[in-house]
Design a protein that fits this description.
mainly alpha, two-stranded antiparallel ribbon, 17 helices, about 70% helix, about 0% strand
Length: about 425
């Protein structure tokens, strides 16, 4: 009977036969940036909550830490937030920050460099002996010192990448060896004073007193950020991949502009824009471009995230490792020269004390993961600012060095704990 057939008049389907109905189509995953773009402010709020739940904290913890530190010390002593103290702070963190940048590169591989302190002292001693004691042209002596740091890093990278000695052992041995070589270079005097008119001293002490210089530098920086953001958005749009909407680019530019011009205003309230701070920021911009916009930078993140996967993708892991330690040695040399310019001397204590712990702490506190594959050169700036702010505030309050060491250690431990919990949350959310 007709009632035994389906309503469409087609043939009956035998019992137990597989269904001919098409399977439901899989819903493709939607990039979160597309959701943000389509939902506007609601999308941004939702994206922020998702990142917090999944452990993608970014620079938020260190920014909050800086705000808390400045609020506490500013309330205890108004001198801390004075233009003079903040200007001095911006100069004092440069040497440590420069060395910390090299540590960031090494940490991105999930490794460590324990030699940067002694390398910085050795390169400062090389410059002082060549220029002051032997009369070599100061620019040539500067280049020789920086090249010496690069050569030391290359040696470390060779033993690590080619010979297979763990980076911890290589750089620990290097820490002892290069410190001994520094003492040998300095000779029996033990200390070489650097004249105030020397290029190294001038690089640290020069300040642009004209208010226009600071504002022009801020304007140029903001303009370059806006142009780079727009170019990146156009490139991604042409490739038909998610890109930042124009409104978000404008908002981010406004925030950057507010920070830059407020900083310029504060610096102008004292003496003006310090040259070492300007050099530090320029280097950060250049190295950030290398890490985020070049093939080499992507290779570093790939090796740090999954070394076996990087090998199978055709990346030369030994080259990446050697080059990263070369960068670390070079930045240690540059940082050591700025530290020598700060105290206008190279001595047996150069690169010693708590310098090594401070630069490692700066990189980690700033947000670079100890486990590799996640971080930014801006971590060096943020971390150095945290450590420098703590030291400056406690010096103003008359706190002893013993307490300063304990507090800095506690902050470092807190940063590592946050990093570990963040990785655990990302693994639970399937994003690690």
């Amino acid at each position: 009977m007709n009632g035994d057939r389906d309503s469409g008049g087609g043939p009956e389907r035998p019992a137990g036969a597989p269904s001919q109905e098409p399977a439901p189509k899989a819903v493709p995953a939607v990039d979160s940036r597309l959701i943000v773009r389509e939902e506007g402010l609601r999308g941004y709020v939702g994206e922020f909550r998702r990142k917090m739940r999944s452990g993608e904290l970014g620079s938020l913890p260190v920014v909050v830490a800086i705000a808390v530190i400045w609020t506490v010390f500013g309330s205890l002593d108004s001198t801390f937030l004075s233009a003079q103290n903040l200007s001095d702070l911006s100069q004092q963190i440069v040497g440590t920050g420069m060395i910390a940048v090299g540590i960031v590169f090494v940490l991105l591989l999930g490794e460590i460099d324990l030699s940067v302190g002694s390398v910085s002292g050795l390169c400062a001693a090389i410059f002082a002996v060549l220029n002051v004691l032997n009369g070599m042209n100061e620019w040539l002596a500067l280049l020789v010192a920086v090249a010496g740091g690069a050569a030391v890093g290359l040696i470390h990278g060779f033993f690590f990448a080619k010979v297979g000695v763990p980076a911890f052992v290589v750089t620990l041995a290097g820490n002892l060896f290069w410190n001994g070589l520094m003492l040998q270079v300095l000779g029996t005097s033990g200390t070489v004073n650097i004249p105030s008119e020397s290029i190294v001293a001038k690089l640290y002490s020069t300040i642009f007193h004209s208010p226009a210089t600071a504002y022009v530098a801020a304007g140029v920086g903001v303009g370059l950020f806006l142009l780079a953001s727009l170019q990146d958005a156009r490139r991604r749009q042409a490739a038909h991949v998610p890109f930042r909407p124009f409104g978000e680019i404008v908002l981010r530019t406004v925030v950057i502009a507010a920070i830059a011009f407020v900083a310029a205003y504060i610096l102008n309230q004292y003496q003006g824009l310090p040259l070492p701070l300007l050099i530090f920021l320029i280097l950060l911009v250049l190295l950030d471009f290398v890490l985020r916009r070049t093939r080499y930078g992507r290779q570093i993140f790939a090796v740090g995230g999954n070394i076996e996967g990087a090998r199978r993708a055709g990346i030369s892991v030994p080259f990446v490792r050697m080059s990263v330690f070369t960068v670390s040695g070079t930045m240690a040399a540059i940082g050591g020269l700025f530290l020598a310019g700060q105290i206008q001397s190279a001595s047996q204590t150069s690169g010693g004390g708590n310098l090594l712990m401070n630069v490692i702490a700066a990189a980690v506190i700033g947000g670079t993961s100890l486990f590799g594959g996640r971080g930014s050169v801006w971590s060096a700036l943020l971390g150095a600012l945290v450590i420098g702010s703590i030291q400056s505030g406690m010096n103003i309050m008359g706190v002893s060095n013993a307490v300063q060491f304990m507090i800095t250690g506690a902050v470092l431990l807190a940063a590592v704990v946050v990093d570990s919990l963040s990785r655990r949350s990302q693994k639970a959310a399937g994003r690690a």
